[in-house]
Amino acid sequence: MSFLVGTASGALVAGGVYYGLSSMISTRAQQHRVDLHRLSERMVNASSDIPAPTPAAARIPQRPFLSMLQNSWNNQVEALFRRSGDLDQQVVDWARKTLYGGDASRTKSE
Question: Are 74 and 86 in contact (CB under 8 A)?
Fold first, then answer.
């Protein structure tokens, strides 16, 4: 007898949970459908004379002095890196000349 009562009460609880969840899902789905319909109506009936914002390129202020300063800085940094590369090559050539003697720019012939 207790087996039947336990099974029936479990089925009753499971049925209640199922009904509650399905009811909640149905209610939310209905609310989403109504919200989407309302939003689509607003989009269709929106006026087309809404002014667009100015483009981003037009909103950026022109600063010629700052641009000149940045270009000058970039050129100086570029020259510094080029000079460091040239110095590195000179050190390599000097080391070859000191260690091996002769022409430093000559490579090993095959």
Answer: no
Q: What is the distance between the alpha carbons of residues 55 and 18, in angstroms, rounded to a whole number?
A: 54
Task: Give the CA angle between residues 88, 90, 91 to the nearest 5°.
Answer: 65
Sign of the alpha-carbon dihedral angle for 94, 96, 101, 107: negative
**What's the start-to-end Cα distance of the chain, in Å?**
101
The identity of residue 16, as a single letter, is: G
HSE toward the beta carbon, residue 90, CA cutoff 13 A: 6
pLDDT tens-digit series, residues 7-46: 999 999 999 999 999 999 999 999 999 999 999 998 888 7
